[in-house]
What we know:
- The chain is about 50% helix and about 15% strand.
- The protein is elongated and about 120 Å long.
- The longest helix has about 55 residues, at about 210-265.
- It has 3 domains: about 35-235, no CATH class; about 270-450 and about 655-665, Rossmann fold (3-Layer(aba) Sandwich); about 460-650, Glycogen Phosphorylase B (Rossmann fold, 3-Layer(aba) Sandwich), CATH 3.40.50.2000.
- It has a 7-stranded mixed beta sheet. It has a 7-stranded parallel beta sheet with strand order 10-9-8-11-12-13-14, with helices on both faces.
- The chain is of the alpha/beta class.
Amino acid sequence: MTGRSNTAEKDRKERKRRRWIRFLPPVLTVLLRVVARTLRWRFCIPEESRCLIESGRPLVLAFWHGHIFLLPGVFQRVFPKRSEIWTLISRHWDGELIARTVKPFGVHAIRGSTGKGGKEALQEMLQALAEGRRVAITPDGPRGPRRKLQPGVVLLSSKARAPILPVAWSASPCLRMKSWDRFEVPLPFGRVCVTFGAPLTVTDDEARADLRSPCTRVEEQMNDLCRRAETERAASSQSDWLEVGYNFLLALLLVPSFPFFVWKLVTTPKHRAGLAQRLGLSLPSIPRPNSPTRPIWIHAVSVGEVLATVPLVRKLRQTRPDQPVVISTITPTAQAVARRTFPEVQAVIYFPFDLPFCVRRVLHSVRPRLFIHTETEIWPNFLLLLGREGIPSLIINGRISARSCRQYGWFRFFFREVLRSVSAFGMQSRADCRRIIRIGADPRRVFVTGNMKFDLPLEEEPEILGLAMRKELGFRQDDTVWVAGSTHSGEEEIVLDVFVRLRASFPALRLLLAPRHTERAAEIETLARSRGLVVALRTRGALAASDAQVVLMDTMGELAKAYAAADLVFVGGSLVPVGGHNLLEPILLGKPVLFGRHTQNTADIARALQEGGGGIEVYDADSLYRQAIRLLSSRAEREALARSARSILEESRGATERNLEMLERFLPC
């Protein structure tokens, strides 16, 4: 009777287990997905570990038994899409439950443990590694002691000649079970920090000579990772609260400004350009080359920054021809210039609005291995998400004006946390270094690398480019041409008044006026006609321009051609408090340059030009007239000024090489 009852009891328990195994895994799979989707992840991944992960080479992923719960979530977020991993799971019924739960995540089971089927499992894992697969193992499982490494992982690594990649995580809030391994289950909407260690290689000879030594080394690194994950997770709590506050204020500002935003979209075509991409709603397909390497994402705000990246991108393509590159811009003009300048890159996209859902969608679509930002526009949500994802980010060609430094300085407590996400800063000058440190950058990450605009290559000979432009406009080759580029409201009046005075001495003088914002062309045309000047718009062609005294450059992307056609150049945004614009472009073309006193955006270049006799600062209409008539009267003086400027430019080259050297430190593979 007792035998029959025991058999019946066993049968009942077996049926119950089968029911659990049948119905519970789908529920647990959904639970894992929900928890993983709601967690705020932060990843700390050394670049050499990321290279190993992306290479597809076999590896042994090692983590403590108490950290099993998040293996599927970590695997799906860190490893390339559609990757698979084989992990050791016991042959008990609860092992079957786990195996079925994790299978939808690309995690396959190798069944066995130290007590049952261990030898067969070891052979199966060795076979998987030999076939180029990845294997995951808990070195302290299945029975402990907790966080004490058993030699199996070291033997497996040495025999398969596959590196051990240790990983640990820390979550808050988190349930800790009373099991031997203190099994940890993070609660939804909590924070989790995942920390990877550097790959560890154990040779077969090393394992045979002294197995204890590599075991101790791996165990110490894994426990150190646990401590680092805990520290990093605790440190990130402050930045999380600051981020919540920032987005709350952003939402408050967006509500009243929304009607104005809609009005701008309706009335201004350039604001509609790329809107879907910037919202993260219509993302372009980014073709992946044969290389499994993820792309480098280079962001350039406008045309000047796009052109400044030309030497860097070309050097990068030379040294790493298989490295995918994605370029992003903000303005439509920069987008067009980038597409024309970089036909070989994987994609040219619009940079997302700095709103959480926009940033997240675009970042997860591009999945960069490295983000490079030219100049210094600080986008908090974007940079913070890069930091959480463990993606290195660099600021190159960085500059920050004294005014911007003061403004950022009011919120240093916030920007200090944001700038923690930036891996390195390559600034244009020592003054820029001091300012970025003042608003919160880590001084150990800040370097002077110079201005890459000094390294811009000439696509065409300036003389050929200038003659072609004059021909397009219907000018005679002996006409004297004055170009005022990137002008702003308040400057056109000064330039036009000076031009009228200059024509008294130079009746054949022509003015090419290129406003910074071409939509103001009609307004400027009215200003010129009110002074009795014959005006033509560039968009009306050579026939209209041939007899005009003033040609309004109401087109985009032709400023360099206009400068090439000039005998004398004035760079705008400098007679009014805007901060000045690119002084290097006309200098590179060998033209004498005048500029106003408001040159905060190009202060170092303006100072170098003044001190080296390569440029002349003017203060108002009278000083602009005096310097212009002097230079227009003497070809020799114009050429001497241009030569001095070019010599200053040559002395300042080399920023591209220095930035590339800094970049290579984050690309070990």
